[in-house]
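Please, structure for the following, as tokens.
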Amino acid sequence: MESQASPTNRTALQTLQPVFFLLAAMWIIEAIDFVLRGRLDFLGIQSRSVEGLTGVVLAPFLHGDFGHLISNTVPFAVLGSLVAWRTTTKGFWWVTGTITVVGGLGVWLLAPANVITIGASGLIFGYLTFLITNGIITRHWLDIVVAVAVLLLYGTLLLGTLPFAVAAGVSWLAHLTGAAAGVLAGVMFAKGPEKPAAAT
């Protein structure tokens, strides 16, 4: 059985394939949205509306423009790849799904009315906090190294969960709910140290 704390037989390509798939989907959808002059952006999370619930799943794939997508691509690729490396393939999808749904529902419930939220930043913040939580829970040396490295490299991003620390038009709430969902995913899916078997 594969575990988060032990090496797997997956090749690098197999490990990173889900991350490449998600990034490819984001770029293809943004290219289509460019042709459609931004019409797809209206499929994002619309607060407390039934129609807006579809945006919970779609929002990470939608971006305001290519500049928005480019700014999300590198941190998504780095943090997503680390999540894929330190989990199984199935685990990566569970972590990603949890962050997407829980974080997205948080935005849907709490964001101001008549606001549409789009972008992969919620997932990025979720991956960040998942990796930190994973290191705390598993206590495996590789997970701890990853958690410390991520905190040093991307820890300042967490300031983006504060309403006064983001630029106008940037959803600090999506950052906050994504980060909270990442902690939840870590608690749910991180594999802690195994207890020694009782002597018989």
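The mean pLDDT is 91. The two ends are 25 Å apart (CA to CA).
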